[in-house]
User: What shape does this take?
Amino acid sequence: MTTLGTKLRKLRDDKKMSQSEIANILGVSQSAYNKWEADQAKPNTDNLVRIADFHETSIYELLDEKSVIQNNTDQATGTIHHNNNVTINNNLSEELVDTIFKNQEQIFKMIEVQTKLIENLIKK
Assistant: This one.
């Protein structure tokens, strides 16, 4: 089982960046990012979208504990090969990518609302 924190650490190490550098790019504090890597806290939906976009992966791959992220970029073609054998070419339409991220964001917002509803029902 691979946690989100473990994946974030691997992705950051692969880019040879510090926590401060990644936190700055994502627009969060270094301590918040540190907590995500340490699995002491989870990023909100907006931050998950930013993280996935920055690392050129999907939110689902980040959150799926059975998935292991192995990003290998072919420098000649600009193609990113993921461990689930899905290949994303840099020539993919930006519109399609934007639509995918918007859909992912909407799904996570719905999950967040459902979670709050369930929490409220449990409290009663």
The longest helix spans residues 94-123.
